Amino acid sequence: MPLLGSLLEKSAQRRASLQLTDTDAFRLVDGVGDQLPGIHIDLFAGRRLISIVGEQLPQDLKEWAAKIGASTYWKRLDQHERESPRHLSGVPQREPFPILEHGVRYQVSFQAGYSQGIFLDQRDNRERVRQRSQAGDSVLNTFAYTGAFSVCAALGGAITTTLDLSQPYLDWARDNMHLNEINPDGHYFCKGDTFHWLRRFARQGRTFNGIVLDPPTFSRDDKGKVFRAEEDYGHLVELAAACLAPNGWLLCTTNCRRLADHEFERTVRDALPKSTRLEAHAMPPDFVGENYLKSLLAVI
Ligand SMILES: C[S@@+](CC[C@H](N)C(=O)[O-])C[C@H]1O[C@@H](n2cnc3c(N)ncnc32)[C@H](O)[C@@H]1O
Predict the structure, then answer these.
(1) Parallel, antiparallel, or unpaired: how do β-strands 47-52 and 72-76 relate?
(2) For the stretch 70-102, what's the b/e string if a residue is b when 16 or more beta carbons lie within 10 angstroms of its beta carbon?
(3) Given pLDDT bands bounded at 50, 70 and 90, which one contains residue 2?
(4) Residue range 87-104: average pLDDT?
(5) Which mutation among 143, 152, 196, 228 tests ligand 1's pocket best, with the greatest number of atoms within 8 A of CB?
(6) In the structure, what pLDDT confidence band is assigned to residue 91 with cuts at 50, 70 and 90?
(7) Does pLDDT of 133 surpass 80?
(8) I want to staple 137 with a disulfide (CB 3.0 to 4.6 A). Which of 13, 101, 158, 286 is the partner?
(9) From atom 12 of ligand 1, which residue's Cα is the shortest distance away?
(10) Topology of domain 2-108, per CATH?
(11) Does the pLDDT of residue 1 top 70, yes or no?
């Protein structure tokens, strides 16, 4: 316990110096990067979520959680059931609640399954999308999940199109817009497969000033068609590029561990015109452990 306690203390101090202003959700402990292999702790507006590999939560971690008193949940990273986190200690958080990130609000839930409604490792990319978006722009957010990128683009002034296979996630995206005083009726929401919609937009001659591509590593659409990031990302980029307005940008990200940084960069580069400028971006500074998220901003 004393060792674990002092390492947790150190991780907290390290984050305090990051000065994450207007932000109450970030990674508090990032495994090996904080000398705590296999332990990840995220902070969500005062609540804590511990993610671990394995079935058993270490006893000293349980004791630490009980001592801090805050509402604490935990989940296994290596589960197949994709279950919601389990309550560990403190006051149970039974309702969805808002978190704040650079002054932007997002709804988080500990009851909605394996993911909580926001991927904290995309924080800097969300900010990039907000900075790039301006009044008069149109931004397409594919594989949108709860629409966090759409909220940022809309706050920048763009008219957004939010695209996902799941209607509940599209509804959540609308709620996230409401939370930020954006009227979702001024934006578009498309339910369905990204590949299908990109082909359709291209046929219709519909273009966007910016497109976000953040697909899951593996997915199967409603017709059973499989997407594997390591095999299909290049094709996805080609389809998206066909829907970009002149001087448009594409944010290409993936957490596919089977794709090395240089392979991902080559895949994206090969799918785009020669004149494209590619910027590679590192993970946010609270993610000090494994460097799994690859982010390329392509300006055509
Ligand atoms: C990893 S999440 C995306 C995270 C999101 N970009 C963010 O940062 O908030 C994957 C999302 O892709 C959606 N999805 C999976 N396959 C899809 C497909 N073929 N077309 C559209 N959406 C898909 C899932 O429903 C899920 O919401």
Answers:
(1) parallel
(2) ebbbbbbeeeeeeebbeebbbeebeeebbbebe
(3) low
(4) 97
(5) 143
(6) very high
(7) yes
(8) 158
(9) 143
(10) Transcription Regulator spoIIAA (3.30.750)
(11) no
**Distance between CA 121 and CA 5 in Å, rounded?**
25
Q: pLDDT tens across 14-42, in order?
A: 998 887 889 999 999 999 999 999 999 99
Angle at 260 between CA 128 and CA 139, to 5 degrees: 25
Helix (H) or strand (E) holding 229: helix 229-241
User: Residue 122: CB within 6 Å of ligand 1?
Assistant: yes
CA dihedral (278, 279, 280, 281) positive or negative: negative
**Strands 104-108 vs 97-101: parallel, antiparallel or unpaired:** antiparallel
8 A C-beta contact, residue 31 and residue 38: yes
Question: Which residue out of 164, 233, 294 has the highest number of ligand 1 atoms within 8 Å of its CB and is therefore the one to mutate?
Answer: 164
- Span from the CA of 52 to the centroid of ligand 1 (angstroms): 23
Chain position carrying tokens 């296999």: 38
Rounded Cα distance between 106 and 129, Å, is 16
Show me where the domains of the chain are located. 2-108, 120-299
148 lines ligand 1 (CB under 6 A): yes
Question: Given a cut of 90, is residue 116 above it in pLDDT?
Answer: yes
What is residue 20's predicted lDDT score, i.e. its pLDDT?
Answer: 83
Tell which atom from ligand 1 comes closest to the C-alpha of 145. 27
pLDDT at residue 217 in the model: 95
194 lines ligand 1 (CB under 6 A): yes
CATH topology of domain 120-299: Rossmann fold (3.40.50)
CB 259 within 8 A of CB 229: yes
Whether residue 167 contacts residue 145, with contact meaning beta carbons closer than 8 Å, is answered with: no
Q: 148 pLDDT exceeds 70?
A: yes
Determine the Cα–Cα distance for residues 72 and 70; give it in Å rounded to an integer.
Answer: 6
